[in-house]
Amino acid sequence: MRLFWTLILIFLYNGYSSEGVNSTLSARPKVVNVGCMLSFNTAVGKVTKVAVEAAVEDINSNPSVLGGTKLNVISLDSNSSGFLGIVEAIRFMETDIMAIIGPQSSVIAHVVSNIANELQVPLLSFAATDPTLSSLQYPFFVRTSPSDMFQMAAIAEIIEHYEWREVIAIYIDDDFGRNGIAALADQLAKRRCSISYKAAMKPEATLDDARDVLVQVALRESRIMVVHTYPSKGLDIFSMARYLGMIDNGYVWIATHWLSTILDSDGPLSPDKKENLDGAITLRIHTPDSELKKKFVSRWSNLTGKAGVTGGMSTYALYAYDTVWLLARAINEFFNQGGNISFSKDPRLTEQNSGSLNLDSMSIFDGGKLLLDDIYKVNMTGVTGPYGFTSDRNLFRPAFEVINVVGTGFRKVGYWCNYSGLSIVPPETLYSKPPNRSSSNQQLHSIIWPGQTTEKPRGWVFPNNGRQLKIAVPNRASFREFVGKVPGTTDSFRGYCIEVFTTAINLLPYAVPYKLLAFGDGHNNPEDTELVRLITAGVYDAAIGDIAITTNRTKMVDFTQPYIESGLVVVAPVKQQNSNAWAFLRPFTPRMWIITGVFFLVVGTVIWILEHRLNDDFRGPPSKQIVTVLWFSFSTLFNAHRENTVSTLGRIVLLIWLFVVLIINSSYTASLTSILTVQKLSSPITGIESLVNTKDPIGYQLGSFARNYLIEELGIHESRLVPLNLPEDYAKALKDGPSHGGVAAIVDERAYMELFLSTRCQFSILGQEFTKNGWGFAFPRDSPLAVDMSTAILKLSENGELQRIHDKWLSGIACTSQNTKLEVDRLQLKSFSGLFFICGLACFLALLIYFVMITCQYCHYYPESESSGGSSRSGRLQTFLSFADEKEESVRSRSKRRQLDATSVRSVDQDASVNGSRIDRSEIYSNRVVSFRESA
User: Fold this and answer.
1) Using CA atoms, how far apart are residues 376 and 368, in angstroms rounded to an integer?
2) H or E segment to which residue 409 belongs
3) What DSSP designation does 779 have?
4) What is the pLDDT at residue 918?
5) How far apart are alpha carbons 897 and 127 in whole angstroms?
6) Mean pLDDT throughout 904-925?
7) Strand ordering across the sheet containing 698-701
8) Is residue 545 within 8 Å of 537, Cβ to Cβ?
9) Would you tell me how many other CB atoms lie within 10 Å of the CB of residue 742?
10) How far is residue 879's CA from residue 703's CA, in Å, rounded to a whole number?
11) Is the pTM of this model over 0.85?
12) Nearest to 639 by CA among 657, 624, 651
């Protein structure tokens, strides 16, 4: 029995040991196979092949990386062909491949990624930078270098930094080129910039094809060129551009990092190629300096020498080296988690009759998802710096160097990183600070542009061989001093607006061919809003003339800087206000006169009440007191009152009133002086407010925006509006007035009205200008010509030329009554309401305090009047009024006699108490009251 159990235990032990060994061998094989797809005939393929082999050698020489397992990289040459890439991918999938490094091309990556998704084999590419490869469509594609999305963001920020608005994109028309330019368009749109023209080229384009494309580019207005292509094609484009004279002043050439790759890996370029690239800007992927990078760079010459490769080391070589290390660390973690290298048949492939294709030999990598997760979890430091992935599967903190090609070399002018934008310091020094993307913080060193100039190119010019601009001009029927057709011609115009335009356009540093086209029949003023709409429809390229800048119009086109200020005003008939016998009453309104007179009487009465008991000047017979009140009240107007005030409250009230009188007197004097010395004009309309509140008809200029403004903004009914065309129509309608079929007033722009009123003194502008706008020239949205014309108009304003043109056309015969002006508003009560309120409040408080004091005094002196049972109210009131009318000195003397009487009463009480006799106190008090009334 013991022997049986011993045999069973030995069997189980051997079985367990055997299973454990097999599992370990399965998890940690001696060799793991990795595929590598490169184009060996390209400069990038040559240097990256050397970097991959160096990484494999370093990994296999360090047992701690893969725990003794060797990494075997199987390299195949795709020869830059999508078809060969598919064939190689299929060949890889027929073997036990855990992952594939590559492909080098984004076009091939799109195809191979579909195979990788199907068979769940991670595809790690350091050169396929197409942004769309990171989408959910390709989960097994891993980009191990910065995406073109960040490169295009850097280019967009450079364009924004130099305040350019439109660029021309020159690119190869394949997945790599199209998707990269689409990313550039998205980044530009975020910064309110755009691609004005896309110049696509065939992938196999020749020099003739490049010439045809660049000829079309030269016909465009933008001079900002972004070249996104392959290294071999890029040099051909620059060569042809040089031949066509496009590497010269005014042009800006920005190349994606294909150009920096050539500069780094191909070694010194020939003088001819350098001359073609002179002044260009390119980007290079930024890799911070570190000891690992220095060691690898120091080995590079030995590595290329062994491989028989010539040329320098590009950033692609650094990323290829780190990609292999990234994969090795992920494989090591894969084995640590118990992953097995096992494959299973794809049922969809086995169901197909593949024939000679032998598709059923390809298998699904069972551990592909686990390995993919381990790849994204790797966080290491490589020769390119900190190496890891963000949650959106992009590399951590992408950054680029901005390179300027100058003469026989190139120089670094700044950096761009996704963290803080453009800077002149390395990005790694900014990561410890808060991100700052303010415009003042975005900096680059000075750049030498094409043509050996350091002055920033304008970015836009009008091409010499471009078509003429079709510029619309309103063919006005009135006010032709601003713009009008020359009689007997079809396309010749003159006027203030025309001369401003021609003078401004002559200041531009480039020629602008244009043709002026009349808009309107010349019999009726055209609708300016319709003219602006035709620009958006492409009928016209611009519009000049008396075009007001309004909100609705700015939504359709871009306007230049206003060259004349002009807002809506009200014009109405006015009549001369002559002096007459009653002119002295004009300064105040009737209500003001009434309230002022009332306050004279009120203040005089209040002073009389406060002074009556103390001041002999305010005492006497009633007739005398009435005269005193009237005299004192109105004599304060001239500060001629004879009566003195002795009470404190009276003096306070009088002081405040004299201040009010001073203000009223000064205002009256100033207004009366103006009325008697200045000729005045009067009108029942005082401005737009009074005009809106009436129901009278209102005139406006035909074709002006005033009609819509009056209806939509001010709520005036359309039936009240009367369109007028000529200045003569204006004058007739105003003279006729509402009662004879005319209008009460005209609402039009100030510029027109000032010209209209220069010879018509019977009309005038009433009130203030109630809109603020100006006239400008209209151009399509985002037109660079609008910006340049605005700059030219500002120059005209600064050097005085704009004023000279204004005086030439608009300073005609002035109205002879220049010294006349509209009647100033009469002094209203509301202008003095604050003073009257203060004075009234002072009077009220003084009376309140006075009555409280006299009531307390009355109660103190005559308490018996309150306790006397049932004396009538009329009697008590009569007693109080008698007390209030009595002079205060009499009250005080009587108070003293009463105190003496009280003393004598107390002595009588004491005598009665001693003698035992009782005296009725009420009788004594009654006798005292009787005696008081008799004495009174």
Assistant:
1) 13
2) strand 409-417
3) E
4) 44
5) 123
6) 51
7) 721-724, 698-701, 745-749, 568-573, 763-766
8) no
9) 19
10) 83
11) no
12) 657
